Each structure stands twice: as structure tokens, then as C-alpha cells.
Amino acid sequence: MKLGSSFPVPAARDRVFAHFLDPDSMRACVPGCVELVKVDETHFEGRLVNEISHVRFSAGFTAEITELSAPAEVRALLRGEDRKLGSSIKVDATLAVRDEGPASSLVEFGLDLALWGKLGRMGESIVRRRSEEVQRQFVATFSRVCAAGPPGPDNPVVRELTAPPADVTAATGAAEPMRRGWWRRLLALLRIRRAATRR
Asked: pTM of this prediction?
């Protein structure tokens, strides 16, 4: 299945292209990307968790940059597999960034997508519809990230989107009072029941 489109980005071409090669930026922008690390200059590894027509998949994946002409064009091959679901995916992606002005660029991309297993049996129309939803989410977030500044730890949007959830960061301070509160309620309920049986 082939997918492709283009969209404007409110940032210069060099910055836009740099964000595409930055694992933190991509983890922040790709819906469902929960892990992404750079292995070397041309290889990445990560995990994608998403849902298509109420079927949830969690696929470990690898991505290899096969052609690179910075800051104009990049081609990459992505392979992923969800063994529990019995499904695998391969994406041959081509991406180009055109200069549209000092602070404006046009991104053009093409995807050759192949699915096997349960995901592959869902039908092209279902997968295409979900892919278009993911694309819209990516474009909106990626535009915010690029407009906020270059890639790196100082980009406020990337920092916001990749920060651990508040309930995780506050767990050490908040979990213990919550446990104590739950325990007190349970003890109170047991006392009430014990008193009722004595009557």
C-alpha cells in the first residue's frame, strides 16, 4: 500500500531536517512511539504502540537510513513485529524538505507500507483511514516542535511531550499517603462489619 502527501512547516529547512533525524523529536511527534534510540549514524531502534480498528499492537522496530542527502532528502527502511499479535510491518519511506523561505519549508513524503498477519488481514481501507489520522496528529505536533526551536534538550515542546507523566514522577511522594488512606478505609470497613456481627 502506498501513501504520500505534503505539508508546510513554519521553520527553516535545516531545522526541519535536523528534527527528522533526532530521536527525541521523533519520539515526541510520532503517535504511539514510546521508545526510540539512536544506535549509530544510520540505525535506530524503538517501540510503537498503537491501535487499528480496536486491535492494539505493540511492535518493536528497527529503522535504517539507506540514503541521505542533508538537508534535502532521506530514505529509510523500517521493520517491526508484534509477536504476540502475530503481525509484522515493513515501511519504505522517502522524505524531502523543500525550502519555502527563511522560516518556512515544505515537507513531501512517500510511504510504501506492507503488513502481514492479523494487521494485514484488516483491509486497505481500514489501515489507510488510521494512517491518515496518525498523519494529521504527526503534522500538528511536528509543526509545534519545529516552530519551538532546534532539536535538543532545550526545545520546550519536545521536553513537554517526552517528560514522564506526573503520576510517575510524583509516585515516591504521593504513593505512600494514598496507600495509607486506602488501608485506613479498609480497616474502618472491617471494624464496622465486626461490630455488626457482634450484635
From this structure: 0.80
